[in-house]
Design a protein that fits this description.
231 residues; globular; Rossmann fold; six-stranded parallel β-sheet; Arc Repressor Mutant, subunit A; single chain; 2 domains
């Protein structure tokens, strides 16, 4: 049974999500919270498997709540940010804080169920509409700091290459191929088709990649791959 905590300051949205989720034999809603502070407390007390997290809430926003929940080693929940995607910066900050997925508020019931099950399985979930947009942001180089001039592209490139080589070193050639396809926002089925292997084999490769990279889920592995220039 997948245990879900719903976090949103709109009671009607929580009620709608609860109706959809509680209708499933493998999912149960164990609690609700209307503020970030209540979300942190509920996550600690209820130990859900998945949390759907709003961004803009009174008292504490969903980004800070996500950060605090992820920082608690006793809580193993995967967090999906539920958003209208009208503020890109919220999404990037939430991913940095440890969110494992994104879901648009106008998504259909099946999208919600798919997201909850994917996060519970450790797969992570990015709404198709935002996947490449989010990953492109993480692939971009950070802004140059004030002070001394930044190193030239030619001198910075070897540093990036060294970091990528260090990251990919523990991976087998096949695992590196799978990671590259993950970074291209491919699903397990699409990876299996591209590499002419079974989906079960893809899942095994993904599990080993996460372990070797020290990533919580595939979303974090993808972000890491983009930052290291592997995609």
């Amino acid at each position: 049974m997948i245990r879900v905590l719903l976090v949103d300051d709109h009671a009607m949205l929580r009620a709608g999500f609860r109706t959809i989720l509680d209708s499933q034999p493998d999912i149960t809603v164990v609690g609700e919270a209307a503020t970030g502070t209540d979300a942190v407390a509920a996550a600690s007390a209820l130990r859900p498997d998945v949390i759907t997290m709003d961004v803009q809430m009174p008292d504490m926003d969903g980004i800070e709540a996500t950060r605090r929940i992820i920082a608690d080693p006793a809580v193993r929940a995967a967090i999906a940010i539920v958003t209208t995607f009208d503020r890109d910066d919220y999404l990037y900050q939430a991913l940095d804080a440890g969110a494992s997925g994104f879901l648009l508020k106008n998504a259909g019931p099946e999208d919600l169920l798919t997201a909850v099950r994917a996060l519970a399985a450790g797969d992570g979930m990015l709404a198709p509409e935002v996947t490449r947009r989010v990953l492109a942001r993480f692939a971009a180089p950070p802004p140059a700091p004030s002070g001394p001039p930044a190193p030239s592209a030619s001198s910075a490139a070897p540093c990036a290459a060294t970091g990528a080589a260090t990251l990919i070193e523990p991976l087998t050639d096949r695992e590196a191929e799978v990671l590259a396809l993950l970074a291209d926002a491919r699903s397990n089925a699409e990876i299996a088709s591209a590499l002419y292997i079974g989906e079960a084999t893809v899942k095994t490769h993904v599990s080993r990649i996460l372990q070797k990279l020290g990533a919580r889920d595939r979303v974090q592995a993808v972000v890491l791959a983009h930052r290291m220039g592997l995609a």
